[in-house]
User: Fold these one by one.
Assistant:
Number 1:
Amino acid sequence: MFAVLSRTGRGSRRGRLLQGAAAVVVLLGLLVWWLLPIGPSAPSGSITFSTGVTSGVYQRYGSLLKEDLGRDLPDVSIQLKNSEGSQQNLARVASGEADFTVATADAVAKYQEDGKPGADRLRGCARLYDDYVQLVVAKDSKIHSVADLRGKKVGVGQEGSGVRLIADRLLTAAKLDPKHDITPVSAGIDTMPDLLEHRKLDAFFWSGGLPTRAVQLLWERYDIRLVPLDPALVAGLHDSGEAASRYYRSAVIPADAYGDAQKVPVSTVAVANLLVTTDQMDAGLTEGFTRTVIDSRDRIGKQVHSAQLVDLRTAIYTAPLRLHEGAERYYRSVKP
């Protein structure tokens, strides 16, 4: 009897010791859970954002966005890289030379339609603001329509720009051959205003947000005007059969877009800008990048007016691109 009682006593003590050890393990686990960060780690690393030509809206927007990204993603190093425009931007992102960029929807559609390298990897993060086509001439010019450009020296944007795409299409819609019916001058918004001012151009095309600073500065020192683009041109663009052309729409440049200089509304063509990355970009970083783009609208909009048009309600519509999973995660998190 005594032996049995002794074994029972030892077993009871062993049980109490095991229970105590288990309690200590649980307490240590709770302490570790409390002290360690919960959830995914903050995005880190280095990214390149391909922007646009100096003095263009892409470049100015990118510079201001970089400031806010530095605040919201402190462990991410951001490098800006100037470019000729949408076409070059897409090639850079698709090849891995850049991680994020801005490009027009028509340029994206053409990149896909042409089967360019990496086209299937491109993803959208946000629809930003619209670009407005601006056909700029001297105030005393006899050019009053796209058809009047026949035989003239015309700035049509650089080879890698979205301006070149839409300028060629508009000329074609107006029954002009972009290579033979005008003298095309390959130049960007950083040089075309000076060329027009010094009568080395008769006109130039620009496609950008409103107002574009380079056009504003030209207007302040030289008498210019914007040539109306007949809404019938949009119908001509749509009839071209190109997939990219369906992203153009008729629009109006408001009378006050350039302050007191313009004075009258001008009919034109508009196309949406998209924030673009690839399916290889980290979801957490893309989510944070997209959040900053939306949250920075009002601050950046004070200096780049077109940024005020970034709207959470429409940002999700990034056709012809599928949404990146990180961007989709952001939009789900802010869905009412």
Number 2:
Amino acid sequence: MSVREFVVLGTASQVPTRHRNHNGYVLRWDGEGIMFDPGEGTQRQMLRAGVAAHDLNRICVTHFHGDHSLGLAGVIQRINLDRVPHPVTAHYPASGRRFFDRLRYATAYRETVRLAEEPVAADGVLARTPSYALEARKLSHPVESYGYRLVEPDGRRMLPERLAAHGITGPDVGRLQREGELNGVTLDDVSEVRRGQRFAFVMDTRLCDGVHVLAEGCDLLVIESTFLDEDAGLAADHGHLTAGQAARAAADAGVRHLVLTHFSQRYSDPGEFERQARAAGFEGELTIARDLMRVPVPKRA
């Protein structure tokens, strides 16, 4: 059975706290694991969350500030130490290649795994698999930053009442799905399009076109909300979002489940992020991320 869930390893911005590790996230999607922004301490958080190096197929880095990338050295070495039996692909802003190289070879170790580097230089589709397309969009931050989005291909939903009306039952249903037509009856006659699921990961950024494109129609949107609304000036100066800005963008995009994360250590009440997100008009499912929590991707509508 396929599993689609988002595992939160860390939720702090800039510096960790007693209760929040540096950033680190893993999306489990149909037998693949995609790690996002491994900050310091990611290896230990993986152990606590039950995520193994063998689970990882891709690593996606949004940008090269330390709280989003300093854990790369340890994660890459762990992938090699554990002799992960499949290739692992790393995506990161092309302008930060020198930082990736330094982290990849920060110390001596034995390379046993093929780690493919596919730097991101422009908006677009980075990879296609049978279960998703991985896209990137540029964000607005003091250093080059990209957000990531997974889009499942659309499928078909068979409609029992229409199948019955055309007298199609049993093995003939499978034949029609494979061949597209059976005795003059087409798939369009007995089914409808089932839109694929969509997930997006948006870290350090001001509001920009990339935020809106990534969030559009998402079933699950994970987005930074470093600041509360009263500190919107600080957010703009440092290239970040407030809780209200993130929530309004999610509401405008029709997001079903919103996960807020990447919180400044200056705030002691996580509930205030939820209150401001609701005040901004977001009415869908809302999660204020905590370290080691798991968030299921919503079931198809």
Number 3:
Amino acid sequence: MGFTKQIRFIHKWLGLISGLIVFIVSVTGCIFCFHDEIKDITRKEWRIVEPQDKPFLLPSVLQEKAKLIAPKNKASMVSYYGKNRSAIVYTFTDTENEYLYFNPYTGKYLKTENPKTDFFIIVEYIHLYLLLPDYIGKHIIGGATIIFILLVISGLIQWWPKRKSDIKRSFTVKWSAKWRRVNYDWHNTSGFYISIIAVIIAITGLTFTYEWVGDGIYKTFNFGGDKALETKAPTIDTTKFKQNNLLAVDNAFVETMRLQPKAEMFYVMFPQNKGDIINTGAYPHTLRFDHQSNYYFHPSDGKLIQSDPYDKKSLGLQVVEMNYGIHTGQILDLPGKIIAFIVSLVAAALPVTGFIIWFGRRKKAKKTKI
């Protein structure tokens, strides 16, 4: 068997093995691309607020208001998503999570969301785990994603023009031909045009499944180094520790806003156990989870322990923390999301058009034998 036939054989069987999973992952990725825009339209009443010329309410105030709404729940985090957006108190019990929306200026309660019944979170869990237990589903998704990358590479090898006369044909679809030829041309040309971006989306997606992928990206851009060491949170001496103090959480939030006065989005994580530090974060743009700055504060008095602003992080860590934005296209705002949507849509079509090619050849081979 020659090299080209070997590549075709590998491409065919890898496609048949992973096709359905690639289709599901790609379609759910398409749906999730514009989830923020869709939710802003369909859930405007509790996601959008009138901006006011006054500071946000402190985290402790919102936590206390959340207790009145859901007294059995514990608060894990408060997020402020922007001047014209509601703040969310993330709460949990032993059995479920609940997200409580508040006006960040007045403290008015707006809505409680349960992620188990949220359409877009269900779509996200299909995308990540196929709604299977995470320790099973993530490996199925991860395996199919690795196969998809191999499919793109093997597809490009088959697509590559052998002669100068093939160049024009390789870049276009002969729309006037019969539908099977159109399908064949579409499979080849669309796969070529999306190949680079599709591989980038696939690799960034693998970081959600395999930690070694993120470590590899970190080492590649830093020419070595240890990501775990750079991202290690500070510790405190619990023998000299006073009890957790809500005032410390408020101090941490105020200090974070002072350190990042131009940031639009903030979060504050509440310490859950004795000795847990307060972790805060700031982002330059609302609803964009890249270019983040992180700060760590003492839970008894809210004094700054460690500062990790974005511009002081290594290039490798900056790229790793841009991973979600790159994967979803969010890093380029709406144009990036449109690109991610189109690439995901075409990627979803590849298993379908590929199966049609395989089925047609199989059917033709049977007729030839007869």
